[in-house]
């Protein structure tokens, strides 16, 4: 439970960290710095756990699997997510991004052969009604969105994230090594995309610190804490439920640190 709470507390800070870091970087640049940081952190953990030999073994066993996961996460998912945060208020991007938890069981129907219960259907209707309330800023009849592109990006990020986790249900390797492989394979795609768009010409210490924070506490160390929480608990549902504390805590930090006025539509949505 302690591992789970630590993971939730760290994840609660990243929406604020995204907006701060995006004050220094364009989205692709932030993805690059964060992924580099995450690769370093995950490599240290894998070596410390004595699993270095598994990196080549797992990749040779399923190269195309890791090519696909690397394209989805970190490349596409974080590029799309950071574009959304760049265009939207943090409270909107955060709230809409967390609808992946509702989308996942829906996508599991065609992709994994699962069945939807009446509760799943009701939850989806309620959740996506909330999406409309948040996206419209509470103007339910105007169909006027502040940033349709930003909303499209953040909802697209939920689809990419769900596809990534559905594909990972087929992973038979060590979870931390698999994540490291995904990031190692995703890095060249991130690098080429950034170089074609806008390379990093200068980076200040404050910018580097912001990007590294995102890499450590969104992508790298926090994921390891979450895995440790799942491995050490007797009841997985108790741990997975903790993740829904994240948006609540995040909104508080967004209000205090970023000075965003949290709108009534965000609370209601």
Looking at this protein, list some descriptive labels.
269 residues, mainly alpha, 79% helix
Structural features, described:
This protein has 269 residues and is mostly helical. Helices cover 79% and strands 0% of the residues. It contains 13 helices and no strands. Helix 4 (63-87) runs antiparallel to helix 8 (148-168). The protein is globular. The mean pLDDT is 89.
Task: Note poorly predicted spans.
Answer: none
Question: Helical percent range?
Answer: over 70%
Quaternary state of this entry equals single chain
Q: What is the averaged pLDDT score?
A: 89
* Number of beta strands: 0
- Write the element-wise H/E pattern from the N-terminal end onward: HHHHHHHHHHHHH
Write down the Rg: 18 Å
SS element count, helices: 13
Strand content: under 5%
- How far from one another are the termini? 29 Å
Give the overall shape. Answer: globular
Derived structural class: mainly alpha
| Main pleated sheet | none
């Amino acid at each position: 439970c302690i591992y789970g709470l630590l993971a939730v507390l760290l994840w609660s800070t990243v929406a604020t960290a995204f907006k701060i870091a995006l004050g220094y970087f364009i989205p692709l640049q932030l993805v690059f710095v964060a992924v580099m940081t995450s690769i370093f952190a995950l490599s240290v953990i894998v070596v410390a756990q004595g699993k270095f030999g598994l990196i080549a073994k797992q990749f040779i066993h399923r190269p195309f699997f890791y090519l696909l996961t690397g394209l989805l996460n970190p490349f596409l998912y974080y590029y799309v997510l950071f574009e959304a945060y760049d265009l939207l208020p943090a409270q909107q991007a955060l709230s809409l991004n967390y609808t992946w938890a509702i989308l996942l069981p829906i996508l599991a129907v065609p992709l994994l052969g699962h069945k939807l219960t009446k509760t799943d259907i009701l939850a989806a209707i309620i959740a996506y009604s909330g999406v409309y309330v948040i996206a419209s800023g509470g103007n339910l009849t105007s169909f006027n969105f502040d940033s349709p592109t930003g909303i499209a990006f953040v909802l697209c990020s939920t689809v990419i994230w769900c596809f990534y986790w559905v594909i990972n249900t087929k992973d038979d390797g060590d979870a931390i090594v698999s994540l490291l492989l995904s990031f190692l394979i995703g890095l060249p795609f991130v690098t080429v995309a950034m170089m074609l768009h806008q390379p990093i010409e200068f980076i200040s210490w404050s910018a580097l610190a912001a990007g590294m924070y995102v890499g450590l506490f969104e992508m790298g160390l926090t994921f390891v804490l979450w895995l440790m929480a799942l491995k050490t608990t007797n009841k997985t549902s108790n741990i997975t439920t903790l993740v829904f504390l994240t948006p609540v805590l995040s909104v508080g930090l967004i209000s205090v640190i970023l000075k965003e006025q949290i709108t009534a539509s965000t609370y209601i949505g």
